[in-house]
Give the backbone structure.
Amino acid sequence: MATKKPKAHQHTAPIEFCRADRVDLAKFDPATKRCTMNCGPHAADPRSDKERKFLCDDCDANWISAPAVKQHWESGYFCAVAVALREEGNPSTAIRSMFDQGGGAREAVKADPSDQDLFRVHGLMPVAGAQ
């Protein structure tokens, strides 16, 4: 019976982890991507969670965080109020009610700048710099 020779240990090169550009990484908000693979870091991986998520092609980049959803909703709400105001041509009781129910001038600062201008023209928001 022949005996097998033990295989010699093969030395492997260390893993080279892809690194992100520091400027691009600084601009990246990790809340804009959601991990879908639940991958953990390799023991030798020097990258932060933020950097790994930034570089990951499997993370869901179309996911919107809860604060971003709220911002989109608020902006969209005031967009609808602005459309109604343009249709009616003046801030009727119904338009004023819709505007106020969305939070009024305090919350309308989250609206699109052109919608804010329309609200100012019709007296729903104070003119910038006016007391």
